[in-house]
Every structure is written in structure tokens, then in C-alpha cells.
Design goal:
Elements (H helix, E strand, L loop, with lengths): L10 H14 L13 H15 L9 H29 L13 H8 L28 H17 L2 E3 L6 E7 L5 E6 L1 H5 L11 H8 L4 E6 L19 E3 L2 E5 L9 H13 L7 E4 L2 E6 L2 H12 L11 E4 L2 E3 L2 E3 L4 E3 L4 H5 L7 H12 L15
Parallel strand pairs: 2-5
Antiparallel strand pairs: 1-6, 2-3, 4-8, 4-9, 5-6, 7-8, 10-11, 11-12
Helix pairs in contact: 1-2, 4-8
């Protein structure tokens, strides 16, 4: 008997399924779930379905979905327990957060989709010429994933069909969680783009700010770059070709050389009213820090309400330690992330000056933790 296929859900079916799962298993989230809007519940369900639908195996059978859901229950229960604990600790609501924090939501809503920021796609050097890149041959699972990706971003308005005279190639890079990351090869565009020199924060300065607090929450923004629109008239520069057609972005895609600087400028504008108060940001990585649990609940609640959605799998909530930008931060010390050590110990033998430079560039990031590191730089 042929296995049942996992259907594509309409908005109405999604709404019904979300309400059903909350009704059948309310203990997962407690009474506070009843106060969450249906839109938020649907967003939660979409995240769960994203985890269920592993790349290369879509659509899945219903048996596969049940098994994967069982695997996820432990994680969901853990998150729900921490949410429940936070609600219990508030005792009806935390102390008011600093006044400057209450304006963050309004600032983000005002900046969420600006008409365009200069340099998102970037001006091109005078006399620059661009051409059309080739369409890569993708595997069948990759083509299915691409079709789903295009359907998703077309529905959201992140891309539209293009008539651009130039284009870049699309390809996929596998991630640790077995999913695929969509990449556009903007090498030719970046080569002739006038660079935005807006500075990224110095990591050493950020670390100095967060080493004294006692409680941390870390989040990585989901689709961070897509919060910024491509400047009107520059969309054609972001065009990419696939077997399904030619498309261009209306929001800032990953891969453009100016994207990190543009997003750092954006997030700094959002946070300009309260620098160094309780939050540090490096592009799309955010660390919220506080000196007490009560204060932290207020800080996190404000951040949670500002509509910058985080990746659930990279969310650390109310923790005494935090891994941030390759470091482990505690109230007493900052240490090296031990998961990075094998990358240095297992580095392949160096065979050229360029490879030596690459290794030193990586190792230098952790030189403060390596005894007698500097003498190794001698020629």
C-alpha cells in the first residue's frame, strides 16, 4: 500500500491543525498559550513543520511526521517549561523596563520595511559590465527544495519575476541540521559594487560589556536581512536564474558584499536610544544581559514583542552562561568555545603562504587563550 503523502497546508487547514494541537496537548504550553494570537500559534506550527520536513525527503509520510514529532516533543516541553517558569516568576508582570526600551517596538515597526537604504544593492563602478551566470544542475531533492523556496518567497513578496539583463547563479549549501541553505553567487556583482564601509562592532568591545551580568538570553534573527528592502530601481542587480525562471529580490538577500554593513546600520538605528544598556548586537546575533532575573524578564519581554523573529534552534533563554560569537560568557570569565578547538587541532597541513595566512587569521581569534601564541608568528 502506497504511503500517504504529507499535504501542503492551506491557511485554513493550518489554523485548524494549530488549534487542534493546542487543544489535545495543552499541557505542553500551559494556560498562557490561550492568550497567544492565532497568528502567533500558526507561526509556531510553521516552525515545527519546517523541522519535520527534512531537506531531500519532502514530502514525508505521515508515519515519518509522527516519529519526528515525537523527537521534537522533548525540545518543545523544555522550551514550554522555561516559558511557564518565566510566567510564574513575573507574578503578574515584571517591573517596568527602562523607559528607552519601551520605544524599541515602535522603532522597529517604523524601520521594518523602509522604502530603501542606499547601498543595499550598491552603486556600481563606472564602466562596470555584468553578464548572465549559468544555471547549475541540481539534484532532484534540491529541485524540490528550490520549488518550495520559490513558492514561499514569492508568496511573501520577497522576490518577483524579473526581466533583468544580468543574473547570478543559485546553489545550495548543506547545513549541520541536514537542511539546505539557499545561496546566490553574487561574485560578479560584488566585484564591481561600490563598497559600504559602515563598521561592524569590535568583538572585544562587545565582550567587555557582557562579562559582569548574571543572566543571559541569546537569539539569532530569522531572515534578518529580509527586514530591509532593496532600494527601488536596484532590484535588477539581485536577479538570479533557475530552471523555473528568472527572479529578483525586493528585500536584501544574503550574499551581497554590502549586506552585513547595511544590516548593522539598520539594527544600530533601532537600538540607538539605549546603547550599552542591556543588549549587544553583532549583525543578526543578539545577546540580552541583566543583573537579576526580574530585570531580565522585563528586558526579554520587550525584545520578544518587537517582531524580530528568532531561530528557535539557536534560542537560549534565561541562562547563567551564553555562547556568543565563538566565546563562552559567564559572570566570572570569558572562555573559548570548546567546540572550536578541534577545528584548530585538526587543521590540515599547511602547504602555501595563503593557507598559513588563513590558519593564522582563524587562530588569532582565540590567541588570548593560547599560551605563548605570539612567538609562533615568527617567520
Amino acid at each position: 500500500m502506497a504511503p500517504q503523502r504529507h499535504p501542503r497546508f492551506s491557511e485554513e487547514k493550518l489554523r485548524v491543525m494549530v488549534e487542534e494541537i493546542i487543544r489535545v496537548e495543552p499541557q505542553l504550553f500551559g494556560s498562557q498559550m490561550q492568550q497567544i494570537s492565532i497568528a502567533r500559534k500558526m507561526a509556531l506550527w510553521r516552525r515545527i513543520m519546517d523541522s519535520i520536513n527534512a531537506v531531500g525527503q519532502h514530502p514525508r509520510t505521515r508515519d515519518d511526521i509522527r516519529k519526528r514529532w515525537d523527537d521534537l516533543r522533548g525540545k518543545v516541553r523544555s522550551i514550554a517549561a522555561r516559558l511557564q517558569l518565566a510566567v510564574q516568576r513575573t507574578g503578574g508582570g515584571p517591573s517596568p523596563p527602562p523607559p528607552q526600551l519601551t520605544t524599541w517596538k515602535e522603532q522597529v515597526l517604523a524601520l521594518m520595511h523602509p522604502e530603501g537604504l542606499t547601498g543595499v544593492a550598491g552603486g556600481l563602478d563606472s564602466g562596470a559590465t555584468l553578464s548572465c551566470s549559468r544555471v547549475y544542475d541540481l539534484s532532484e531533492p534540491e529541485n524540490r527544495y528550490l520549488r518550495d523556496y520559490l513558492d514561499d518567497v514569492l508568496a511573501k513578496g520577497f522576490i518577483h519575476h524579473s526581466t533583468s539583463p544580468v543574473s547570478s547563479s543559485l546553489f545550495f549549501v548543506p547545513e549541520k541540521n541536514r537542511e539546505l541553505r539557499t545561496c546566490i553567487g553574487y561574485h560578479a556583482v560584488n566585484k564591481v559594487t561600490i563598497k559600504n564601509r559602515y563598521p561592524l562592532p569590535l568583538i572585544s568591545v562587545l565582550l567587555d560589556q557582557v562579562c559582569q551580568p548574571t543572566i543571559y538570553t541569546k537569539l539569532n534573527l530569522r531572515g534578518a536581512y529580509h527586514l530591509i528592502r532593496v532600494m527601488k530601481g536596484d532590484e535588477w542587480k539581485t536577479a538570479f536564474r533557475t530552471k523555473f525562471g528568472l527572479f529578483e529580490y525586493t528585500v536584501m538577500p544574503f550574499g551581497l558584499c554590502n549586506a552585513p554593513s547595511e544590516f548593522q546600520f539598520f539594527i544600530n538605528e533601532v537600538l540607538q536610544e539605549f546603547p550599552d544598556v542591556c543588549i549587544v548586537v553583532y549583525i543578526d546575533d543578539i545577546l540580552i544581559y541583566s543583573s537579576s532575573t526580574e530585570e531580565h524578564i522585563g528586558h526579554v519581554r520587550v525584545v520578544h514583542e518587537h517582531h524580530l523573529f528568532a531561530k528557535l534552534e539557536k534560542f537560549i533563554f534565561h541562562a547563567p552562561t551564553a555562547e556568543f560569537l565563538g566565546y563562552v560568557i559567564t559572570p566570572d570569565e570569558i572562555s573559548m568555545d570548546r567546540s572550536k578547538v578541534p577545528s584548530i587541532l585538526d587543521w590540515v597541513a599547511l602547504r602555501s603562504i595563503k593557507e598559513v595566512q588563513q590558519f593564522l587569521g582563524f587562530a588569532d581569534f582565540y590567541q588570548r587563550f593560547i599560551t605563548t601564541f605570539l612567538p609562533w608568528y615568527l617567520p
